[in-house]
Design goal:
The protein has 326 residues and is α/β, with parallel strands linked by helices. The chain has helices at residues 14-21, 37-45, 60-64, 84-89, 102-117, 120-128, 157-167, 182-186, 194-200, 220-225, 243-251, 291-309, 321-324; strands spanning 5-8, 25-28, 49-52, 71-74, 94-95, 149-153, 172-176, 190-191, 203-206, 231-234, 257-260, 280-282. It folds into two domains: 5-100 and 291-325, NAD(P)-binding Rossmann-like Domain (Rossmann fold), CATH 3.40.50; 102-282, Rossmann fold (3-Layer(aba) Sandwich), CATH 3.40.50. The structure holds (2R)-2,3-dihydroxypropanoic acid (DGY).
């Protein structure tokens, strides 16, 4: 019996690929950069399974031009690059990897928070540039994290994991989410309207998915509400922040600093004005980038894919409505 053809859009950790090798006719895109849209579309058109990354645009045209496609499995929790409605309409389940990267991403959010608060990138550049001449009473003064107010926007799994870390720093935790969270209440976090979170927080950490409602949620209006000492952290999706408004806010002192793991667009263009600012720390979307977590999510993605090829319910499905229509 012939094996189902599966296109994997990049080299992923081997334990994930190993699960697929025996039962699939595996085609792995070998480059560091993603396949072009046309290549992706041509590969999808010949495949029964796709294992994708968040940088692959899986739109309705691609899905509808892939007659044999039976499952899409994304090695990430966020699936904003995939047209879920189009997949559902075609009866194609879309897998993703919730839960597995929660703690690792929360670790990075807290690392960014601390680095921006204490101006670590600037301090490091200062030393490397040979500018450290003496102990300076006014040198590189930052902000205290302990005892400060942390505002969390989006109190899902990762937001809660960040809140637990903040407890260790005796922070006051306030949050906005679509619904009040009993788990957040148990951590002592206060549920407030979004504008109040923007206005009261010393540190604002974003943990919402990117949806039409959250696109550019942090815009000029939001920055106008924030404290001039506020620090904004984004480990969610770049599109949640309006980058032009962020530049205005950082360059005019409306807020003190930002620390971003995600940008709009991604990667950030080398001529982005944000890259000229000392108070804007940017890292290249490494929220889940630990060896253990990337291995775990590669395995989860492979398991979702295999379940889809076998016609079984995906262990982690981003469009469960697909099962209602059968
Ligand atoms: C996700 O899983 O959505 C992350 O952004 C990738 O680490």
């Amino acid at each position: 019996m012939s094996k189902p053809r599966v296109f994997v859009t990049r080299v992923i950790p081997e334990p994930g690929l190993a699960l697929l090798r025996d039962s699939c006719d595996l085609v792995i895109w070998p480059d560091e950069l993603p396949p072009s849209y046309d290549t992706l579309r041509a590969e999808a058109a010949r495949s029964e399974g796709l294992l994708t990354l968040l940088s692959d645009p899986i739109d309705a045209a691609l899905i509808n031009a892939a007659p044999s496609l039976r499952v899409i499995s994304q090695m990430a929790v966020g699936v904003d690059n995939i047209d879920l409605a189009a997949a559902t309409a075609r009866g194609i389940p879309v897998g993703h990897t919730p839960g597995a990267l929660t703690e690792t991403t929360a670790d990075l959010a807290f690392a960014l928070l601390m680095a921006a608060a204490r101006r670590l990138p600037e301090a490091e550049r200062f030393v490397h540039a040979g500018q450290w001449r003496t102990w300076g009473p006014m040198l590189l003064l930052g902000q205290d994290v302990h005892g400060a107010t942390l505002g969390i926007v989006g109190m899902g799994r990762i937001g809660l994991a960040v809140a637990r870390r903040a407890q260790g720093f005796a922070m006051r935790i306030i949050y906005y989410s679509r619904h009040e969270s009993p788990e957040a209440r148990a951590l002592g976090a206060e549920y407030l309207p979004l504008d109040e979170v923007f206005a009261q927080a010393d540190f604002i950490s974003l943990h919402t998915p990117l949806t039409p409602e959250t696109y550019h949620l942090v815009n000029d209006r939001a920055f106008a509400l924030m404290k001039p000492t506020a620090v904004l952290i984004n480990t969610a999706r770049g599109g949640v922040i309006d980058p032009d408004a962020l530049y205005r806010a950082l360059s005019t002192g409306k807020i003190a600093a930002a620390a971003l793991d995600v940008t709009e667009p991604e990667p950030i263009p080398p001529d982005s004005p944000l890259l000229t600012l000392d108070n804007c720390l940017i890292v290249p979307h490494i929220g889940s980038a630990s060896v253990a977590t990337r291995t775990r999510i590669a395995v989860m993605a492979a398991e979702n894919l295999l379940a889809g090829l076998r016609g079984e319910r995906l262990p982690h499905c981003a469009n469960p409505q697909v099962y209602e229509r059968q």
